[in-house]
Design brief:
The chain is an alpha+beta fold. The chain is built from two helices and eight strands.
């Protein structure tokens, strides 16, 4: 029997908190979700662990250093992407980091902003908003944008 197995893309996200705010980057000049706030995140590269990807993306996007051992799994989201793609999004809470978060990729982000979790603006990447809502409900797994039967 031949199986048609899923080959999803994988992305790692970091949740840096200060009081009741989270660090967001405003997407710009990327061609995808420009003008929307997203969490520092990115694709997991070949032969890279989810934790290593989260650490790398935090360094690249917001200029902070994170000890991979402090990352706390917060949510796994299985997301239907565009053109039939499938994504596994792994969110990590980051209790401590070194350095002051800043916009380390001004060619891809308009700004770094600390946004109040309970008063987010309308222009949040929809899957990120759904992920934050799932975490607020105490969920550790969620699904996003899959067609309903």
């Amino acid at each position: 029997m031949i199986y048609d197995t899923a080959t999803p893309y994988v992305a790692a996200y970091v949740l840096l908190r200060r009081a009741n705010t989270l660090a967001f980057v405003l997407r710009s000049h990327t061609g995808y979700m420009d003008g929307m706030y997203g969490l520092p995140s990115g694709k997991v590269e070949k032969n890279e662990t989810f934790r290593a990807a989260a650490v790398r993306e935090a360094r690249e996007e917001i200029g902070v250093e994170i000890d991979p051992q402090v990352l706390q799994p917060a949510l796994t989201m299985h997301r239907a992407g565009e053109s039939g793609s499938s994504w596994v999004d792994v969110y990590f809470s980051v209790p401590t980091w070194q350095g002051e978060p800043s916009n380390a990729e001004p060619d891809k982000h308009g700004e770094l902003a600390w946004l109040a979790v309970d008063d987010l603006p309308a222009n949040i990447v929809p899957s990120v908003r759904a992920g934050l809502q799932a975490m607020a409900r105490g969920e550790f797994y969620s699904e996003f944008a899959w067609p309903t039967s």
